[in-house]
């Protein structure tokens, strides 16, 4: 379900590192080489290239890239080149430090990753920032948002398929009751959404829909301008239908007056090796245009080329 | 700083498993063999014995032990034989299911273990109970206790030695202000105690003491019967002076009218391979009697023998 293509026979990390070094030195920078190598290697291959590069040239590959390229192209190449856990730690740190209601990056990272992935991100966060992720989220958020976001990033949800239907019914009733009272930040809503396994949350939401006649997110849309409600909806979508959530982020990023490169780059770099194929299909269906064509229309130059290398060409 | 003694040359796990099996079959049970083997093996050695035992005899060693022995002796042998993370998962599960204000086992496990240990416990909890630790703690606690306990068990604190003194000062002031207002369960108190690294919390508490003239736990003792205050004090002691905390639990367990075997067994089995040497020294100093003598006076039979094997004999 990934969209990146990795050649059947790949050069050794030593050769890749050498070619990248050559792309940096001398007359200008050879962006094509950067793209043709980095966009077509797996995370573990990229890690080996970085290790070899650092050993041989005494400089972090990311630092060299930072010197040679700039703008949106730099951002997409740097984010992509990082290890997935490191990349998410960086994105979460930026989002925490600049947090404002409506910024859903933290929710994406907390809810649309596996439990082990989220834990790897927290470990990478320690190493990179000498603090904990939950510490920074708690320090930069307030009120209801803090009550929701801190347990979300601290969660280590059970990931088995077991579902307790009695519990799903009773907790669907709790959710419905609190929503009817407009007690959207009630601790029981937060407890259910932040501690139950995803399979259990999904069973509860299905029961909610069956029993009360509406998907929960419809009942959480009473005030479309309420940031806390939109945050709750993002939590629910990232848990229950992450690919649809990602499709929508890309759609809004592209359809904006002036593309939202930040969002587009984030989703492409975090999903290209995971589920971008599904997201692309959803995008095509929803917008009647292939994602690669939409990206081509909205972006240009090396940035466009790197995005397309990650997203892959659509079938004719 | 452990008190268990492991022989210089230890038999292979195969031999140990065979001797244990012999201790179970036939005429009665040979408790001395159980103690002489299990009390003198490291966690990894015990794991190998369990693995070999299960493979050879088609039954979990713990199950065989459960059939052969009983009461306090069984409890100490079973708890000790478990892997540290499994043991803490079991203790936390019992404490969560039977939780009542004043039960500090969850705090002990959340605050007096390293971040990596706590995470290993959460992972063991998934495997054993098909749920998450925070899920069970959240489901069985309410009100202020829930607000404090859920983030405590979900924490993955940064563990580096770095301390931000400016932050320590400002957060000491926040703690003091909220305590002066008797807002003991204020979210800022909870945020500081549950998300900061232990080194940072300790720096904050030291500053509190210097600036406001009292150790924080003195200011949290205005009502000695208030369970939430005693819970906060336990959090602070488990973070800042865990060995003193453990000494006190043992002291109270032994000095009780009728020993509290549950607490004594828990502390001995969880600390014997970690810091029991320090706890013993503190105990001797505080009570003017060596811990081993106090244990001998209060317990008997195989239970006594197992505890003494774990705690070690005191110097004459």
Outline the structure in words:
The structure is a homodimer of 316-residue chains. By secondary structure, chain A is mostly helical. Chain A has 4 domains: 13-69, Annexin V, domain 1 (Orthogonal Bundle); 85-154, Annexin V, domain 1 (Orthogonal Bundle); 165-240, Orthogonal Bundle (Annexin V, domain 1); 242-311, Annexin V, domain 1 (Orthogonal Bundle), CATH 1.10.220. Helix content of chain A is 71%, strand content 0%. The first copy, chain A, has helices at 13-24, 31-38, 43-57, 61-68, 71-81, 84-97, 105-111, 115-129, 133-140, 143-154, 165-180, 187-195, 198-212, 216-219, 227-240, 242-255, 261-271, 276-287, 291-298, 301-311. In chain A, helix 1 packs antiparallel against helix 2 and helix 19 runs antiparallel to helix 20. The longest helix of chain A has 16 residues, at 165-180. The first copy, chain A, is elongated and about 65 Å long. In chain A, 46% of the residues are buried. The mean pLDDT of chain A is 95. At the A-B interface, helix 8, helix 9, helix 10 and helix 12 of A face helix 8, helix 9, helix 10 and helix 12 of B.
Low-confidence stretches of chain A: none
Q: Largest interface, by Cβ-Cβ below 8 angstroms: which chains and how many residues each?
A: A-B, 29 and 29 residues
Query: Helix amount of chain A, in percent?
Result: over 70%
* Name given to the CATH architecture of the largest domain in chain A: Orthogonal Bundle
The average pLDDT score of chain A comes to 95
Cα separation of the termini of chain A: 19 Å
Instruction: Provide the structure class of chain A.
Output: mainly alpha
Record field, number of beta strands of chain A: 0
Categorize the overall geometry of chain A.
elongated
Oligomer state equals homodimer
**Strand percentage of chain A:** under 5%
Order of helices and strands of chain A: HHHHHHHHHHHHHHHHHHHH
CATH class of the largest domain in chain A: Mainly Alpha
User: In DSSP terms, counting alpha (H) and pi (I) runs of 4 or more, how many helices of chain A?
Assistant: 20
Sheet with the most strands, sense and barrel status of chain A: none
CATH topology of the largest domain in chain A: Annexin V, domain 1
Pfam families (chains A, B): Annexin
GO cellular component, one term (chains A, B): plasma membrane
Binding site for Ca(2+) 3 (chains A, B): 298
GO molecular function, one term (chains A, B): phosphatidylserine binding
